[in-house]
Amino acid sequence: MLTCDDIRSIALALPEAEEQPHFDSTSFRVKGKIFATMGDEPRATLKLDPEDQQNLSEAHPGVVGPVEGYWGRSGWTVVQCANLDPGALSGLMRMAWVNVAPKRLAKAFVQGA
């Protein structure tokens, strides 16, 4: 079972990732843009491409799903981390990071991975 500390470690392992407060939660950002948030539960909200969000939600019902309303339609996705292994969360977190990172940074990261 993943903990909030695991989520934090995975997010901050990404290039130029920073942790900052965001209302009543914690956000993880790259170049000032939020790619993930988390609260007090082992759950993350990730900024995914809407098509990836749909595919992942269908493949992992109850674990991955859109945030309700407008935010969900724009790709914000809830991930129940207690039901994932670290490798799966790491892959999802990388997808969110690449989605918001500046193109040159994302390209360098993808080519180096």
Describe the secondary-structure layout.
Elements: H1 4-12, E1 17-22, E2 25-30, E3 33-38, E4 43-47, H2 50-59, E5 64-66, H3 70-73, E6 76-80, H4 86-100, H5 103-112
Antiparallel strand pairs: 1-2, 2-3, 3-4, 4-6, 5-6
Helix pairs in contact: 1-4, 4-5
The assigned CATH architecture is Alpha-Beta Complex
CATH topology description: Aspartate Aminotransferase, domain 1
Please work out how many helical segments DSSP would assign: 5
Q: Termini distance?
A: 26 Å
Rg computed from alpha carbons, rounded to a whole number of angstroms: 13 Å
* Helix residue percentage: 40-55%
- Strand order within the widest beta sheet: 1-2-3-4-6-5
Please, what is the average pLDDT? 94
Low-confidence stretches: none
Structural class label: alpha+beta
- Overall number of strands: 6
State the oligomer.
Answer: single chain
Overall 3D shape: globular
Instruction: Write down the domain tally.
Output: 1
Approximate strand percentage? 25-35%
Biggest β-sheet, characterized? 6 strands, antiparallel
CATH level 1 class label: Alpha Beta
Topology as a string of helices (H) and strands (E) = HEEEEHEHEHH
Keywords: DNA-binding
GO molecular function: DNA binding
InterPro entries: YjbR-like_sf, YjbR/MT2646/Rv2570-like
Protein name: MmcQ/YjbR family DNA-binding protein
